[in-house]
């Protein structure tokens, strides 16, 4: 099971890193493209989070339930982003930031006390997502360019941390 969740973390990390690089490469992208990319990221991360906890029977039940609930909420926020691509920039910023906040909190809460491989990297991943969310929520009026920069930076760091966590899980010896 550790290998399955390792592959899922690695996949989510690579996807987030690629999206972050794409956002940096196209700073003049329209709101629709940015909204689609970030909404798609939230949807995929939410689905991966759900799958991680559905297919990890050795995890504590409370942690699994919390992980699935956060995964569903993150996925729903991704769907909201995808449904209204031309919506208000502020609304999009808040939705994406809430998705990052939930994802970061899920990663932190499910990693603390777990004792599994890559726990430190998973906690760091959660902290980066939470800090990125807070930055976006505190300064929503700085404009789309700042949002793209903060968002792309957050996605790159979250992606790198996810890759490290996935590799650490894959390198762990089965118990």
From TrEMBL:
The keyword Transmembrane applies. Keywords: Membrane, Transmembrane, Transmembrane helix. InterPro entries: Acid_resist_chaperone_HdeD (IPR052712), DUF308_memb (IPR005325). One of its GO terms (cellular component) is plasma membrane. It comes from the Bacteria. Pfam families: DUF308 (PF03729). The chain crosses the membrane at residues 7-27, 33-54, 61-79, 85-102, 123-142, 148-170. This is HdeD protein. It comes from Actinoplanes awajinensis subsp. mycoplanecinus.
């Amino acid at each position: 099971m550790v290998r399955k969740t390792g592959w899922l973390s690695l996949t989510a990390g690579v996807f987030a890193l690629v999206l972050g690089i794409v956002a940096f490469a196209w700073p003049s992208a329209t709101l629709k493209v940015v909204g689609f990319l970030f909404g798609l990221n939230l949807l995929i991360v939410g689905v991966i989070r759900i799958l991680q906890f559905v297919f990890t029977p050795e995890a504590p039940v409370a942690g699994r339930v919390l992980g699935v609930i956060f995964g569903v909420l993150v996925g729903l926020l991704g769907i909201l982003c995808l449904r209204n691509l031309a919506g208000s920039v502020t609304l999009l910023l808040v939705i994406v930031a809430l998705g990052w906040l939930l994802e970061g909190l899920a990663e932190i809460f499910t990693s603390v006390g777990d004792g599994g491989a890559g726990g430190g990297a998973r906690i760091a991943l959660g902290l980066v997502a939470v800090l990125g969310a807070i930055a976006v929520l505190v300064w929503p009026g700085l404009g789309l360019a700042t949002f793209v920069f903060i968002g792309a930076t957050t996605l790159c760091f979250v992606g790198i941390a996810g890759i490290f966590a996935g590799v650490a899980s894959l390198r762990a010896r089965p118990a």
